[in-house]
């Protein structure tokens, strides 16, 4: 048997790919100690999620309770059905820009329909097992679009941070928005500004001196208390929205028609794309913190069901949230039950303490989002990529600037395209075609003897070796070399033992070199090709009488000496 044959692992079964991690956790044996750990972690995450869910909903152009519905319904299903033990689902800051634009264009009903459609798309992506490919987004792209989103979200909070009164509706694009804010600078509300600064300072000081305390919730409570006690003229959830309901909304479908589906289709695609990227990135972060491995396609299926259910109950887009997932891990969660408990606690708070939400100042929630934006902008990673290489810097800045000044989806597409071109260029430069005797491979059946350098080439034979992935990006480089050497001597041995991958373009290049060698009367032998490579070449006509094949250079020389060939 050829020892070089690659033994492929057995294809995972459907149950192995799509069994929720909750089932895995329960199969392992779930004890009262595990439940205690999950309960503490769930409470911790709920305390963090409470102000964030409302703040993200308001920034997205919808009422605060819709953010809570998303964390309760969507978050529960993400934990119950997901492929990550520690994933916490809910509304995410990354969606603010897209959701706000969708609400402004098609209203809340259109948003709910787009969210349901995004859920269906996520189900399809998961069941088609495409989750693995979504994780191939280049790192500079993720850093760039996250930083761009942070800038856009912060710009959208300036009005609330300073209590400004705009002359008209707040523009969506960044430059017109900043111009409108500049024109309204004279309407600054000092009370709102004080509340925002108080919130930000309280969060920063508690993160520094009491990092285990729920800084955001305490800061919101402090700001609300100050506004109520001193009757500060700062707008609150109660004055703008009339508070939040003390119950869940009954499930209902939004208005659906063919024209409406076509209208919101681009929004649904954007929601699905960003939701897949954000949730899988969050799951990878959790894996890095715990040493576990998530099931990407199962996670996407859970995200799909969660978005459909969230929209039915009046919620907005659901995805895995990196900050809350990391909080869950740091709080000592054992498994998926903690995320379900987090949702149950949020539901309990709505049922019991909803009237208290009326006292929360909007400037305080804007302060919370300002801190979130500061944390979202990965400053060290951004600077590192700028210094890493010109290619990485180009991908980063292109994504960042397009997200800020054009569109989030365009930023991701352009960044991914540039990253792919950069990868192709680097792979193409990594391939080498050389005559180096020290690289000649021995027959795998004869591992012992050392190679005699004098065997590499002689007066009649030239031996060359290709090293690296041979694909369309490297075809012109390799083809130019082969054209020069394929007719230099009577015998030409091309060693492919160091080629891990051949594509159709590469096979076409080899075919052209083989035809040229045959016309020049040169005998062409390919050595060391893997079974997959040989199959690719033969399918493209690289076979007798153009070439013969050998297991190694030694076997190729044996062919030239008239010994039996190893075709």
From TrEMBL:
Residues 451-560 form the STAS domain. Pfam families: STAS (PF01740), Sulfate_transp (PF00916). PROSITE patterns: STAS (PS50801). Gene3D superfamilies: STAS domain (3.30.750.24). The keyword DNA damage does not apply. It is a multi-pass membrane protein. One of its GO terms (cellular component) is membrane. GO terms for biological process: transmembrane transport. It is found in: Membrane. Keywords: Membrane, Transmembrane, Transmembrane helix. The chain crosses the membrane at residues 39-60, 67-88, 94-124, 136-158, 178-206, 213-232, 268-288, 300-323, 343-372, 393-424, 462-482. The keyword Membrane applies. This is Sodium-independent anion transporter. The lineage of its organism: Bacteria, Pseudomonadati, Pseudomonadota, Alphaproteobacteria, Hyphomicrobiales.
């Amino acid at each position: 048997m050829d020892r070089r044959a690659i033994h492929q692992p057995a294809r995972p079964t459907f149950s192995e790919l799509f069994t929720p991690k909750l089932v895995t956790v329960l199969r392992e044996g779930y004890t009262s100690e595990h439940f205690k750990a999950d309960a503490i972690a769930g409470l911790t995450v709920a305390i963090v999620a409470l102000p964030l869910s409302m703040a993200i909903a308001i920034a997205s152009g919808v009422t605060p309770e819709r953010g809570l519905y998303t964390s309760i319904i969507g978050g529960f299903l993400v934990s119950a059905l997901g492929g990550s033990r520690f994933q916490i689902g809910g509304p995410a800051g990354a969606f603010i820009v897209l959701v706000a634009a969708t609400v402004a264009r098609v209203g809340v009903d259109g948003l709910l329909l787009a969210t349901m459609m995004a859920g269906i798309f996520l189900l399809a992506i998961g069941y088609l097992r495409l989750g693995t490919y979504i994780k191939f987004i280049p790192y500079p792209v993720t850093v760039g679009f996250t930083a761009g989103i942070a800038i856009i979200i912060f710009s959208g909070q300036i009005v609330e941070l300073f209590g400004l009164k705009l002359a008209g509706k707040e523009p969506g694009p960044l430059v017109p928005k900043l111009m409108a804010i500049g024109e309204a600078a004279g309407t600054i509300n000092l009370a709102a500004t004080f509340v925002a600064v108080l919130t930000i300072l309280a969060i920063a000081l508690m993160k520094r001196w009491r990092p285990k305390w729920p800084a955001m919730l305490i800061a919101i409570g402090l700001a609300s208390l100050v506004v109520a006690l001193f009757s500060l003229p700062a707008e609150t959830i109660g004055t703008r929205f009339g508070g939040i309901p003390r119950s869940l909304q009954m499930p209902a479908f939004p208005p659906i028609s063919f024209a409406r589906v076509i209208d919101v289709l681009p929004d649904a695609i954007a929601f699905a794309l960003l939701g897949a990227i954000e949730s899988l990135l969050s799951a990878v972060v959790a894996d890095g913190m715990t040493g576990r491995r998530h099931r990407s396609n199962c996670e996407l299926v859970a995200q799909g069901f969660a978005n459909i259910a969230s929209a039915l109950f009046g919620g907005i887009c659901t995805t895995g949230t990196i900050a809350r997932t990391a909080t869950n891990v740091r709080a000592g969660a054992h498994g998926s039950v903690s995320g379900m408990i987090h949702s149950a606690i949020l539901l309990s708070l709505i049922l019991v303490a909803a009237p208290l939400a009326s006292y929360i100042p909007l400037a305080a929630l804007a302060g919370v989002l300002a801190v979130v934006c500061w944390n979202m902008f990965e400053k060290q990673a951004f600077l590192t990529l700028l210094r890493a290489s010109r290619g990485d810097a180009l991908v980063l800045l292109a994504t960042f600037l397009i997200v800020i000044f054009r569109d989030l989806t365009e930023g991701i597409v352009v960044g991914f395209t540039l990253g792919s071109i950069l990868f192709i260029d680097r792979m193409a430069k990594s391939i080498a075609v050389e005559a180096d005797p020290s690289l000649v491979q021995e027959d795998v059946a004869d591992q012992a003897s050392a190679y005699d350098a004098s065997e590499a080439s002689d007066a009649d034979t030239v031996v060359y070796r290709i090293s690296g992935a041979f694909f369309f990006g490297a075809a012109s480089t390799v083809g130019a070399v082969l054209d020069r050497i394929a007719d230099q001597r009577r015998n030409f041995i091309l060693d492919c033992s160091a080629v891990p991958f051949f594509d159709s373009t590469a096979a076409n290049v080899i075919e052209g070199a083989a035809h040229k060698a045959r016309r020049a009367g040169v005998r062409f032998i390919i050595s060391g090709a893997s079974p997959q490579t040989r199959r690719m070449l033969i399918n493209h006509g690289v076979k007798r009488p153009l070439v013969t094949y050998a297991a190694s250079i030694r076997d190729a020389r044996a062919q030239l000496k008239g010994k039996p060939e190893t075709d």
